[in-house]
From TrEMBL:
Family per record: Belongs to the peptidase M14 family.
Domain of life: Bacteria
Example GO BP: proteolysis
Domain Peptidase M14: 21-267
Record-given protein name: Zinc carboxypeptidase
GO molecular function: metallocarboxypeptidase activity; zinc ion binding
Entry keywords, A to Z: Carboxypeptidase, Hydrolase, Protease
Signal sequence residues: none
Length: 381
């Protein structure tokens, strides 16, 4: 399997009707209409009685459970999964290899209420990824019921991460991140953790050809309330995928393609045989660090009365407004930010930076524009 083939397949099977960050049940329902009805079932309902869909592909002996949008505002992997579904529907060597050896059960949106409101939490304001022990929410119970009935050999826990993460501390953005979760407080390298690490290592090897130094690794601190840690604790190799940021890709369409590649590669590795032998390469992936802001205005003078030169960090707040996700620029931090990086960097060259109303910028201010040396500069993506 090579990148050229995967990229050509992606553009062939990409679900054209899905675009951007706001993906709900109603969006995927349109796409599911084109799939065989025998593959689709409803496994339960959310707090607000929205259906939780499941799809089944393949007929092989290796059972793999995948789920996405456990957090309603993390939709990139959902788009990538719908693209994968289209791939599974056509005759090609990659999908044939996967589906002949594996049986997949996939939940594309576990938290449809959160997806509707574009929020991390469900309708009861509960983080489903902290409900693995209490199972207090209907969505958590659905996932556990599917897990218990299916008895998977592998689990893929698909998420999205904010733009703040870098792969290491050298100014490389984490476009994708991975984790083989711990299964105990000692974080022992158990056989199933090593298998998950080995799969991630092989996926990373391929991705490095597409996004050199653009893959991060999450901290493996143990929390049994998290679903991935719980399933790993059950002895099932579990992989956490996180869709991150790519340059100027606030709609997450480039990262969608990268996630498609990573999912298909991970499944193909399992289908063609995986052991724990390659796990040590997993630790060569740099750890994620919170070192990015969406914009940094460097060398800014904040008022005529003061001569101190500071940096201004801007972070976008994602808000659902009239059915669209709007990115609202907010002043996150005013400081010397030598060890931080901006996805966009503006050098004020010691010039005055104020609001369009000629007011001094303060942390917490929301501004679509600023004035830099009397020039109006847009902060929108």
């Amino acid at each position: 399997m090579n990148l050229e083939l995967l990229n050509s397949l992606f553009f062939k099977v990409k679900t054209a009707d899905l675009f951007g960050r706001y993906i709900t049940n109603s969006d995927i329902e349109k796409s599911l209409e084109d799939l065989s009805k025998s593959k689709i079932s409803i496994k339960g309902y959310s707090v607000e009685n929205r259906p939780i869909y499941s799809l089944k592909f393949g007929h092989g002996p290796i059972k793999i459970l995948l789920w996405s949008q456990m957090h309603g505002n993390e939709s990139t992997s959902t788009k990538a999964l719908l693209d994968c579904f289209n791939l599974f529907e056509i005759d090609n060597e990659i999908s044939n290899a996967i589906l002949n050896q594996c049986t997949l059960v996939v939940i594309p949106i576990l938290n449809p209420d959160g997806a509707e409101l574009y929020t991390r939490l469900n309708a009861n304001q509960v983080d489903l990824n902290r409900d693995a022990q209490d199972l207090s929410q209907p969505e958590s119970k659905v996932l556990r019921s599917v897990y218990n009935d299916f008895k998977p050999d592998f689990c893929f826990n698909l998420h999205g991460q904010r733009t703040i993460f870098g792969a290491g501390e050298m100014g490389k953005v984490a476009s994708l991140s991975f984790l083989s979760p711990s299964q105990d407080a000692n974080r022992w390298l158990t056989p199933n953790r090593k298998v998950a690490m080995s799969i991630i290592a092989v996926v990373n090897e391929l991705l490095q050809k597409e996004i050199p130094n653009g893959v991060g690794r999450y901290d493996d601190g143990f929390n049994l309330n998290c679903v991935g840690d719980t399933f790993q604790n059950f002895g099932v190799p579990t992989l956490l995928y996180e869709a991150g940021h790519f340059h100027q890709d606030y709609k997450r369409e480039e990262v969608r393609r990268l996630m498609f590649i990573a999912i298909i590669k991970g499944l193909h590795v399992i289908a063609t045989g995986v052991s724990e032998i390659a796990y040590e390469a997993y630790f060569q992936i740099p750890e994620n660090t919170k070192c990015f802001y969406d914009i940094i205005i460097r060398n800014a003078k904040l008022s005529e009365a003061e001569n101190d030169i500071m940096d201004i960090a801007i972070q976008y707040q994602e808000s659902l407004i009239d059915g669209e996700i709007k990115f609202v620029p907010r002043v996150e931090k005013i400081s010397i930010l030598d060890m931080k990086f901006g996805h966009r960097e503006i050098n004020a060259k010691a010039g005055l930076v104020v609001t369009c109303e000629n007011l001094e910028l303060k942390e917490g201010y929301e501004n679509d524009f600023v004035m830099i040396n009397n020039e109006r500069i847009s902060l929108k993506p």
